[in-house]
Amino acid sequence: MVDAAMPGPAAPSQRSRDLRLLIGGRAVSQLGDQLQSLALPLVVIAVTGSTLQAGVVLGLQTAASLVLGLAAGALVDRWDRRRTMAWCEVGRALLVASIPVAIVAGALALPQLCAVAVLNGVFGTLFSAANSSAVPSLVPAAELPRALGALSTIRNGLRIVGAPLAGIAYGLGSVVPFTANAVSFAVSAVTLRAIRTPFQEERRVAPPGPRALLHDIGEGLGWLRRRPAIRTLAVLDALDSLRFGAGYLLIIVLAKRLGAGPFEIGLVFTGAGLGGLLGSASAARLARRFPLGRLAIAMLWIEAATFPCYALAPTWWLLAAVAFAESVVAPIYTVALDTYRLTITPDAMRGRVTSAIDTLTTGGATIGTVASGGLIALLDPGALTFALAGLLAVLAVTATGSRDIRGTRLPD
Fold first, then answer.
1. 206 in a structural domain
2. Would you tell me how many other CB atoms lie within 10 Å of the CB of residue 403?
3. CB within 10 Å: which end of the chain, N or C, has fewer?
4. Mean pLDDT, 10 residues at a time, over the chain (412 residues)?
5. Are both 182 and 231 inside the same structural domain?
6. How far apart are CA 379 and CA 362, in angstroms?
């Protein structure tokens, strides 16, 4: 094997410029995703007349992420991460652009929508795996919490404005959200191509072949097994994601029981977005001040204490207040966790470690989402709320009793 040719370290001014390009491109792309999130199921229903088919199309994208997750991490640890991200954005732009073209031509059909969902899941998984190492390459270690906090603030801000903008965009025409998202992917690709700082350190060229790829995946999983704090937090996060996936439909059902219509339900989730925005704004400062273990334990206890209030709230606007309170601490914990994980994970293994954890948490959320309808019918919404709160309490007790988690803090 030979050494891969990599550029030398970028100057601080260059890295600062590149960070602004990265953040700007991600913001535009995430806004495009928000606009499309409402349009895609509505278009599937318009084409097929079936809500079941809409669920299938949405599920295909998640399934692609789960199937490819571990391999994607190994691949982006081999490839040039910045170029991989740029080409993924180009691929997604072309895929999404095919939908408005087919709508205008009167040729949109379910097979095309399924193909777009699967391939979009493939490109998105590769992009996310490579993206995990972008920010640490552009900022000094001491500034990593601030940069991650800024990205979290933008993401939660877009959650708040994205829903009403998505409705307006779809109201202007079914082609508008998809066209806007295709343009947003293209903008993201252009900003990535303009970045000059490499997203990985110099490394040796990996041998080709599926056996070598499986070895890389096993190496990443082995590194993760030897880090009990990250491993335990990953399992707890996966179970928390299961609760989160089940909670989305549950909150909608509880709000409808209180007489909330679509607008009021939207305001309930706006409350969650505002809570996330507040948490993101203070995430960098608190992530530097408190050890990760304490933040993880605090988040789980706060979630366990507030989640039963969804079943006890007598009005929909109090549901919004509960959603706000529950959502404040999660971004703080997430920024602290990502800072810790990215700091201690070797650069050459960041894609594999991130993909393994993302596959686990995405799987938990998917199981919760798929099972939520049946659980609501089986247990009643109120009973399911308390059952999920009980799960959160078990997770909180487990985290509190774990010596590995209690002692977890950023290295000096």
1. no
2. 10
3. C
4. 44 81 91 84 81 73 84 90 94 95 91 91 91 85 87 86 80 90 95 90 69 88 90 92 86 87 81 90 88 92 94 92 92 91 89 90 84 81 92 95 84 64
5. no
6. 24
